[in-house]
């Protein structure tokens, strides 16, 4: 097996790994978007309840219960912000992994091309040598 063919196998393996990481990156980005959407929904929900509390003019007891509920929603918002941060961090790590895999694939492809060019040069030299040899034989046959 020629070096370029062996290198092509390495390129194929690297490309499959790059593609797998790219799929994971897409999934990670979708998770970030989902977590951000959920966070926005919680913020809207909290904002609605906060504005309703001011409009309702509740008694002290109901205001306390209402405030506890709003506090729980605020706590859920903080937890969701942390979830967004974690999913964004995971997406960033996957992005770095994908970039590294892409660089490796390009390197392997460059190496394959280098070997292929060397093989073509050797083949050209071989053909030239054979052509020169053939021409020399004809010349020698004509002299005789």
Automatic annotation (TrEMBL):
* Localization (cell): Cell membrane
Positions in coiled-coil regions: 22-128
Encoded by which gene?
fliJ
Give the top-rank taxon of the lineage listed in the UniProt record for this protein: Bacteria
- The entry's keywords: Bacterial flagellum biogenesis, Bacterial flagellum protein export, Cell membrane, Cell projection, Chemotaxis, Cilium, Coiled coil, Flagellum, Membrane, Protein transport, Transport
Record flagged with keyword Coiled coil: yes
Q: What is this protein called?
A: Flagellar FliJ protein
UniProt lists the family membership as follows: Belongs to the FliJ family.
Q: Which InterPro entries match?
A: Flag_assembly_chemotaxis_eff (IPR053716), Flag_FliJ_proteobac (IPR018006), Flagell_FliJ (IPR012823), FliJ (IPR052570)
The record's section on Pfam families has: FliJ (PF02050)
> In what way does this protein cross or attach to the membrane?
Peripheral membrane protein
Q: What is the species of this protein?
A: Marinomonas arenicola
PANTHER family documented for this protein: FLAGELLAR FLIJ PROTEIN (PTHR38786:SF1)
């Amino acid at each position: 097996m020629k070096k370029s063919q062996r290198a092509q196998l390495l390129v194929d393996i690297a490309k499959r790994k790059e593609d797998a990481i790219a799929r994971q990156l897409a999934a990670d980005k979708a998770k970030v978007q989902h977590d951000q959407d959920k966070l926005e929904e919680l913020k809207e929900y909290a904002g609605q309840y906060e504005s309703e509390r001011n409009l309702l003019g509740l008694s002290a007891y109901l205001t306390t219960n209402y405030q506890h509920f709003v506090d729980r929603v605020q706590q859920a918002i903080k937890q969701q912000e942390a979830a967004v941060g974690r999913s964004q961090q995971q997406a960033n790590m996957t992005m770095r992994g994908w970039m590294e895999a892409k660089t490796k694939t390009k390197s392997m492809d460059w190496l394959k091309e280098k070997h292929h060019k060397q093989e073509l040069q050797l083949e050209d030299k071989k053909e030239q040598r054979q052509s020169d040899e053939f021409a020399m034989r004809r010349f020698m046959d004509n002299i005789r």
